[in-house]
Specification:
Strand order of the largest sheet: 1-2-7-6-5-4-3
Shape: globular
CATH class: Alpha Beta
Strand content: 35-45%
Oligomer: single chain
Radius of gyration: 14 Å
């Protein structure tokens, strides 16, 4: 896992990125990310039909967001706000081919308190670990 935590960006707040290459193809990871099982792992409990372009969603855990960009088998961008945050951040999740394996990058921007960087580091590291476990079950 490769993590990147940069200092505060002018007008964009803080950012956080994490990258992981999985021992599955891009197609398999993309399908997993958008499946009910995958969404449960990285986003929370929700009706997966609510996860579509330009449609707002809210998980049972209280995470709110809206998908603003969606390119199949490539990436999507969305707003993301847990219930204890005042303002949403922006998440871009991108999957690329790395020598036949799927490399996923999660890049998050626009959170304005330094402490949220550490919170996101823990959150996304846990998500990656749960993804590894779930993918091993199925593949």
């Amino acid at each position: 896992m490769i993590e990147k935590t940069d200092p505060q960006l002018k007008n964009l707040g803080f950012q956080y990125s994490i990258r992981k290459t999985f021992p599955v193809s891009v197609d398999v990871l993309w399908e997993f990310i958008l499946s009910e099982q995958g969404i449960l792992v990285w986003l929370g409990t929700m009706d997966i039909t609510d996860f579509e372009l330009n449609k707002s969603f809210k998980t049972q855990e209280g995470i709110e967001g809206k998908v603003t960009t969606f390119k199949p088998d490539c990436h999507f961008r969305m707003s993301w706000k847990p219930p204890h945050w005042d303002k949403p951040s922006i998440i871009e999740l991108r999957i690329t081919n790395n020598k036949g394996r799927a490399a996923m990058v999660i890049h998050q921007t626009r959170f304005f308190e330094f402490e949220k960087r550490e919170e996101m580091k823990i959150y996304w590291s846990n998500v990656i670990e749960r993804m590894i476990v779930e993918l091993k079950k199925d593949f």
